[in-house]
Amino acid sequence: MQHRKQTLITLLFAGFLSLATAQAIAKDDAHHHHDGGTSAGLSLNNGAKWKTDAPLRQGMKNIRNVLEPQLPAIHNNKLKPEQYQTLAREINAELSTIVKSCKLDKDADAMLHLVLADIIEGVDALAGENKQVGRHDGAVKIYKGLENYGAYFAHPNWQPMTHGE
Q: Cα–Cα distance between 25 and 118 in angstroms, integer?
C-alpha cells in the first residue's frame, strides 16, 4: 500500500510539484488540520470556485458516496479494522480513476492536489499505514478534504455531508 501511495502522489504532482514538496505540504497540512483550519495554500480562483471536469466530479461524488454511509459507524467507533480497509481500497480506486481521467488547467490542478493530499493521507490512515494518524482521524481527513473540495471547486449540486452523529 505504501508503494501505491508513493506512485499516486508522484502522478498527482508530476509537472507541478516535486514529490518532496508534495510530502511537505501533506505533512504541514496534517499539522494544520489539528486546528480545524483549511488546507494551507487553498484559495479561490479570483473569488470564484475552480472549474471541474466530469471525471473529477464523478470521482469525488463516488468518494463521498463511499464515505458518507459509514460516518455513523465511524463516529460511534463501531467500524471494524477490515471495514476501514475496505473503505480505504474503495476510495483509493476512485483516486486512481481521478488521476488517470481528470484534465484541469494547471492552476485548478494545483489546488486540487492540495485537496487530494488530505484524502490520500486519510486513506493511508484508514488502511492502518499511517501510525501517527488513527483510522478514525483518517476518515476525518477525508471528510475535511471533501468539505474543501466543495468549498473551492465548482461541482453543481454538491451538498455538505452529514456528520454521522
A: 9
